[in-house]
């Protein structure tokens, strides 16, 4: 029940995906409520009326908060070209500096001006007290964990699983009717146009008695605190009861050759390289590139499943 690769809360707006995943597990409804700590104070996320009132020490109602944020947001930005501009346009400098600038520099290892605006668009801004981290209507945690999903998916008699068998470009794929490749796209081509940049994350594990932070995820916005967030796993399964607790401090760093890639950075220089690989992919037959690594996009679990189901619907 410990999410080995960081906190994962299944959420989607696609009923087909929601129904599909539940063939392999029982989902327990779960709403993710994340807090963030900035300069020693705890705030509500995603940015909502509570955050705005806490941060500016006000008691605005929704209309007043909208007017206020409108008055402090940067109106010189028409079409936000990067993460920073997206934030400045929608929430203004103070909230951006407090909650996004430091966290994002730690998470991505670069200036937010270098990052695409789409990363920030993942998070809503609300003028009410709704602190549900996601906007998607279907949200849950698999009752017996994510491993069970894969065990059930792979238990069909016509699926053979070979572990510890890393794809190698010397394989003769013409032996197969079709290949679905979900590894990193640059590795498929032996990095011939160079490496795409990714962030990886690593975790420091702690075990103690009781309750460490009283919430599944708390983010740390200050740049001086070197981890980005702390996840305490028993809070993802409130239907279970545990006297002890396991929690992790999450750190982010650049992905080296031996690290597991997590987050595609998609900097301008990456996208130039990616385009070259994608051109090569377009010239291949009987192979489909799918998922976060093979398409070099910041996809969630439900996006990956949704695209796989679409592909099957269209072709088979
Ligand atoms: N982010 C931030 N402060 C926060 C939470 C998120 O600056 O407290 C930014 C950060 O750049 C992050 C992005 O928003 O990478 C997307 O956040 P999300 O929680 O969706 O990231 P994930 O859970 O996929 O790591």
TrEMBL record:
Span of domain UDP-galactopyranose mutase C-terminal: 98-298
One Pfam family of this chain: GLF
Domain of life of the native organism: Bacteria
Protein name, as recorded: UDP-galactopyranose mutase
Species: Chishuiella changwenlii
PANTHER family listed in its UniProt record: UDP-GALACTOPYRANOSE MUTASE
InterPro entries: UDP-GalPyranose_mutase_C
SUPFAM superfamilies: FAD-linked reductases, C-terminal domain, Nucleotide-binding domain
Gene transcribed to yield this protein: glf
């Amino acid at each position: 029940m410990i999410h080995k690769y960081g906190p994962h809360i299944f959420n989607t707006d696609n009923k087909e995906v929601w129904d599909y995943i539940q063939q392999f597990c029982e989902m327990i409804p779960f709403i993710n409520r994340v807090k963030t700590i900035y300069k020693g104070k705890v705030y509500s996320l995603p940015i909502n009326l509570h955050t705005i009132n806490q941060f500016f020490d006000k008691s605005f109602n929704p209309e007043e908060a909208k007017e206020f944020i409108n008055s402090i947001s940067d109106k010189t930005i028409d079409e936000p070209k990067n993460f920073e501009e997206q934030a400045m346009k929608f929430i203004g400098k103070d909230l951006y500096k407090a909650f996004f600038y430091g966290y994002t520099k730690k998470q991505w290892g670069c200036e937010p001006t270098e990052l695409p605006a789409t990363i920030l668009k993942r998070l809503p801004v609300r003028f009410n007290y709704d602190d549900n981290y996601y906007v998607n209507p279907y949200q849950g945690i698999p009752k017996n964990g994510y491993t069970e999903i894969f065990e059930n998916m792979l238990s069909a008699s016509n699926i053979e699983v070979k572990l510890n068998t890393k794809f190698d470009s010397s394989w003769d794929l013409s032996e197969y009717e079709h290949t679905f490749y979900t590894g990193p796209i640059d590795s498929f081509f032996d990095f011939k146009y160079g490496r795409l940049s990714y962030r990886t994350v690593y975790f420091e594990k702690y075990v103690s008695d009781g309750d460490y932070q009283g919430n599944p995820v708390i983010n740390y916005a200050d740049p001086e605190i070197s981890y980005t967030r702390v996840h305490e796993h028993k809070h993802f399964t409130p239907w279970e009861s545990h006297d002890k607790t396991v929690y992790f401090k999450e750190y982010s760093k650049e992905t080296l050759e031996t690290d597991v890639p997590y987050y595609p950075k998609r900097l301008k220089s990456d996208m130039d390289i990616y385009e070259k690989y994608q051109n090569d992919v377009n010239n291949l037959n009987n192979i489909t590139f799918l998922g976060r690594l093979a398409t070099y996009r910041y996809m969630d679990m439900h996006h990956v499943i949704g695209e796989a189901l679409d592909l099957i619907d269209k072709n088979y």
